[in-house]
Amino acid sequence: MTVVARKPGTPIAKLAHRAGHRCLDFVNSLVATNEPAPRDSLLSPSDYRIWAGMAGIAVDPQASEPVELAALNRARELRESILQILTAMLDGKPTPVGAIEHLTEEAARSFRSRRLAPADGHLAWQRTYHDLDSVTDLLAAEAAELFSRAGPLPLKRCIDADCGWFFLDTSRNKSRHWCSMTDCGNRAKARRHRARQQLEECAN
Predict the structure, then answer these.
(1) Residue closest to 107 by CA, chosen among 117, 99, 96, 118
(2) Would you say 171 and 150 are in contact if contact means Cβ atoms under 8 Å apart?
(3) 7-203 belongs to which CATH class?
(4) Which helix (H) or strand (E) holds 8?
(5) In the chain, domain spans
(6) What is the spatial distance between Cα 29 and Cα 38, in angstroms, rounded to a whole number?
(7) Cβ of 11: how many Cβ atoms within 10 Å?
(8) pTM reported for the whole predicted model
(9) What contacts 24+ positions apart, CB below 8 Å, involve 54-62?
(10) What is the mean pLDDT of each run of 10 residues along the chain (204 residues)?
Protein backbone atom coordinates (compact mmCIF):
# COMPACT_ATOMS: atom_id res chain seq x y z
CA MET A 1 0.00 0.00 0.00
CA THR A 2 1.53 3.31 -1.12
CA VAL A 3 1.43 6.20 1.34
CA VAL A 4 0.50 9.48 -0.31
CA ALA A 5 2.77 12.40 0.61
CA ARG A 6 0.77 15.16 2.28
CA LYS A 7 1.31 18.56 3.87
CA PRO A 8 1.69 18.82 7.67
CA GLY A 9 -1.59 19.20 9.52
CA THR A 10 -2.71 20.18 13.00
CA PRO A 11 -0.32 19.08 15.77
CA ILE A 12 -1.37 15.60 16.80
CA ALA A 13 -1.92 16.56 20.45
CA LYS A 14 -4.58 19.08 19.39
CA LEU A 15 -6.70 16.62 17.42
CA ALA A 16 -10.01 15.71 18.99
CA HIS A 17 -11.22 12.11 19.12
CA ARG A 18 -14.91 12.36 18.31
CA ALA A 19 -15.59 9.82 15.54
CA GLY A 20 -17.27 7.23 17.74
CA HIS A 21 -14.74 4.51 16.87
CA ARG A 22 -10.99 4.38 17.37
CA CYS A 23 -10.08 3.35 13.81
CA LEU A 24 -12.07 6.33 12.47
CA ASP A 25 -10.22 8.66 14.83
CA PHE A 26 -7.04 7.10 13.45
CA VAL A 27 -8.02 7.98 9.87
CA ASN A 28 -8.99 11.44 11.08
CA SER A 29 -5.32 12.15 11.73
CA LEU A 30 -5.70 13.12 8.08
CA VAL A 31 -7.71 16.30 7.50
CA ALA A 32 -9.64 17.31 4.37
CA THR A 33 -9.10 13.98 2.62
CA ASN A 34 -11.94 14.85 0.26
CA GLU A 35 -10.03 17.92 -0.95
CA PRO A 36 -7.11 18.13 -3.45
CA ALA A 37 -4.54 18.87 -0.72
CA PRO A 38 -5.27 16.90 2.48
CA ARG A 39 -3.10 17.45 5.54
CA ASP A 40 -1.41 14.87 7.76
CA SER A 41 -0.90 15.11 11.52
CA LEU A 42 0.82 11.72 11.84
CA LEU A 43 4.33 12.63 10.72
CA SER A 44 6.67 10.96 13.21
CA PRO A 45 6.84 8.01 15.61
CA SER A 46 6.43 10.54 18.41
CA ASP A 47 3.15 11.68 16.84
CA TYR A 48 1.96 8.08 16.75
CA ARG A 49 2.84 7.60 20.41
CA ILE A 50 0.96 10.75 21.35
CA TRP A 51 -2.06 9.66 19.30
CA ALA A 52 -2.04 6.21 20.92
CA GLY A 53 -1.98 7.73 24.38
CA MET A 54 -4.90 10.01 23.53
CA ALA A 55 -6.78 6.95 22.21
CA GLY A 56 -6.20 5.06 25.47
CA ILE A 57 -3.64 2.61 24.06
CA ALA A 58 -0.60 1.95 26.26
CA VAL A 59 2.79 1.97 24.53
CA ASP A 60 6.20 0.79 25.75
CA PRO A 61 9.22 3.11 25.93
CA GLN A 62 10.71 4.20 22.63
CA ALA A 63 12.60 1.61 20.59
CA SER A 64 15.44 2.22 18.13
CA GLU A 65 14.86 4.80 15.40
CA PRO A 66 14.74 2.28 12.50
CA VAL A 67 12.20 0.14 14.36
CA GLU A 68 10.07 3.16 15.22
CA LEU A 69 10.12 4.50 11.65
CA ALA A 70 9.19 1.09 10.24
CA ALA A 71 6.27 0.90 12.66
CA LEU A 72 5.11 4.39 11.65
CA ASN A 73 5.25 3.51 7.95
CA ARG A 74 3.21 0.37 8.58
CA ALA A 75 0.63 2.39 10.52
CA ARG A 76 0.31 4.96 7.75
CA GLU A 77 -0.10 2.20 5.16
CA LEU A 78 -2.93 0.71 7.20
CA ARG A 79 -4.51 4.15 7.45
CA GLU A 80 -4.45 4.47 3.65
CA SER A 81 -6.30 1.17 3.28
CA ILE A 82 -8.93 2.10 5.86
CA LEU A 83 -9.35 5.49 4.17
CA GLN A 84 -9.95 3.82 0.80
CA ILE A 85 -12.55 1.50 2.32
CA LEU A 86 -14.38 4.33 4.09
CA THR A 87 -14.38 6.52 0.98
CA ALA A 88 -15.78 3.70 -1.16
CA MET A 89 -18.52 3.04 1.40
CA LEU A 90 -19.64 6.66 1.45
CA ASP A 91 -19.42 7.07 -2.32
CA GLY A 92 -21.36 3.88 -2.96
CA LYS A 93 -18.53 2.45 -5.02
CA PRO A 94 -16.91 -1.00 -4.99
CA THR A 95 -14.36 -1.34 -2.21
CA PRO A 96 -10.81 -1.53 -3.64
CA VAL A 97 -9.65 -5.14 -3.56
CA GLY A 98 -6.13 -4.15 -2.60
CA ALA A 99 -7.37 -2.25 0.45
CA ILE A 100 -9.46 -5.23 1.58
CA GLU A 101 -6.56 -7.63 1.14
CA HIS A 102 -4.21 -5.33 3.02
CA LEU A 103 -6.61 -4.94 5.95
CA THR A 104 -7.17 -8.70 5.99
CA GLU A 105 -3.43 -9.34 6.16
CA GLU A 106 -2.94 -6.78 8.91
CA ALA A 107 -5.87 -8.12 10.95
CA ALA A 108 -4.39 -11.63 10.68
CA ARG A 109 -0.99 -10.29 11.72
CA SER A 110 -2.58 -8.73 14.79
CA PHE A 111 -2.66 -12.13 16.51
CA ARG A 112 1.09 -11.80 17.09
CA SER A 113 0.44 -9.27 19.86
CA ARG A 114 -2.76 -10.47 21.51
CA ARG A 115 -4.24 -13.58 23.06
CA LEU A 116 -7.44 -14.75 24.70
CA ALA A 117 -7.41 -14.85 28.49
CA PRO A 118 -10.00 -15.40 31.25
CA ALA A 119 -11.79 -12.25 32.33
CA ASP A 120 -14.80 -12.16 34.70
CA GLY A 121 -16.37 -15.41 33.58
CA HIS A 122 -15.63 -15.01 29.88
CA LEU A 123 -12.68 -14.74 27.52
CA ALA A 124 -11.28 -11.41 26.43
CA TRP A 125 -8.48 -10.28 24.16
CA GLN A 126 -5.35 -9.09 25.93
CA ARG A 127 -2.35 -7.41 24.35
CA THR A 128 0.89 -9.35 24.73
CA TYR A 129 3.13 -6.59 23.34
CA HIS A 130 2.91 -2.84 23.78
CA ASP A 131 5.21 -1.47 21.07
CA LEU A 132 4.09 0.77 18.20
CA ASP A 133 3.46 -2.24 15.97
CA SER A 134 1.04 -3.59 18.56
CA VAL A 135 -0.94 -0.34 18.29
CA THR A 136 -1.31 -0.97 14.55
CA ASP A 137 -2.26 -4.59 15.29
CA LEU A 138 -5.06 -3.38 17.55
CA LEU A 139 -6.32 -0.83 15.02
CA ALA A 140 -6.32 -3.42 12.22
CA ALA A 141 -8.32 -5.86 14.33
CA GLU A 142 -10.81 -3.17 15.37
CA ALA A 143 -11.22 -1.92 11.79
CA ALA A 144 -11.83 -5.44 10.50
CA GLU A 145 -14.44 -5.99 13.22
CA LEU A 146 -16.16 -2.67 12.39
CA PHE A 147 -16.36 -3.30 8.66
CA SER A 148 -17.56 -6.89 9.06
CA ARG A 149 -20.58 -6.04 11.20
CA ALA A 150 -23.94 -7.08 9.82
CA GLY A 151 -25.97 -4.28 8.28
CA PRO A 152 -24.95 -0.82 7.05
CA LEU A 153 -22.77 1.36 9.22
CA PRO A 154 -24.13 4.76 10.30
CA LEU A 155 -21.07 6.25 8.63
CA LYS A 156 -20.91 9.97 7.85
CA ARG A 157 -18.32 12.48 6.77
CA CYS A 158 -18.17 16.05 8.06
CA ILE A 159 -19.56 18.34 5.35
CA ASP A 160 -17.05 21.06 6.18
CA ALA A 161 -14.71 20.90 3.17
CA ASP A 162 -11.74 21.91 5.34
CA CYS A 163 -12.41 18.98 7.69
CA GLY A 164 -13.92 15.91 6.05
CA TRP A 165 -13.56 13.79 9.19
CA PHE A 166 -15.37 10.46 9.34
CA PHE A 167 -17.74 9.62 12.20
CA LEU A 168 -20.52 7.27 13.20
CA ASP A 169 -23.84 9.09 13.33
CA THR A 170 -25.59 7.70 16.39
CA SER A 171 -28.07 10.57 16.65
CA ARG A 172 -31.73 9.58 16.94
CA ASN A 173 -32.76 10.73 13.44
CA LYS A 174 -29.34 10.26 11.79
CA SER A 175 -29.26 13.93 10.81
CA ARG A 176 -25.78 14.84 12.00
CA HIS A 177 -23.78 16.75 9.35
CA TRP A 178 -20.63 17.85 11.15
CA CYS A 179 -18.02 16.05 13.21
CA SER A 180 -18.80 18.59 15.91
CA MET A 181 -21.48 21.25 16.11
CA THR A 182 -19.25 23.37 18.36
CA ASP A 183 -16.43 23.45 15.80
CA CYS A 184 -17.31 22.80 12.18
CA GLY A 185 -21.02 23.41 12.73
CA ASN A 186 -20.48 26.83 14.29
CA ARG A 187 -17.97 27.78 11.60
CA ALA A 188 -20.55 26.91 8.94
CA LYS A 189 -23.14 29.06 10.72
CA ALA A 190 -20.68 31.94 10.91
CA ARG A 191 -19.93 31.66 7.18
CA ARG A 192 -23.66 31.70 6.34
CA HIS A 193 -24.13 34.73 8.59
CA ARG A 194 -21.31 36.62 6.89
CA ALA A 195 -22.70 35.71 3.47
CA ARG A 196 -26.14 37.07 4.42
CA GLN A 197 -24.58 40.27 5.72
CA GLN A 198 -22.67 40.74 2.47
CA LEU A 199 -25.85 40.22 0.45
CA GLU A 200 -27.70 42.73 2.59
CA GLU A 201 -24.88 45.26 2.17
CA CYS A 202 -24.87 44.77 -1.59
CA ALA A 203 -28.65 45.17 -1.69
CA ASN A 204 -28.38 48.46 0.16
Answers:
(1) 99
(2) no
(3) mainly alpha
(4) strand 7-8
(5) 7-203
(6) 10
(7) 11
(8) 0.89
(9) 54/12, 54/13, 54/15, 54/17, 55/17, 55/22, 55/25, 55/26, 57/135, 57/138, 58/127, 58/130, 59/130, 59/131, 59/132, 59/134, 59/135, 60/129, 60/130, 60/131
(10) 80 94 96 85 97 97 96 97 96 96 97 95 96 98 96 92 91 85 65 53 64
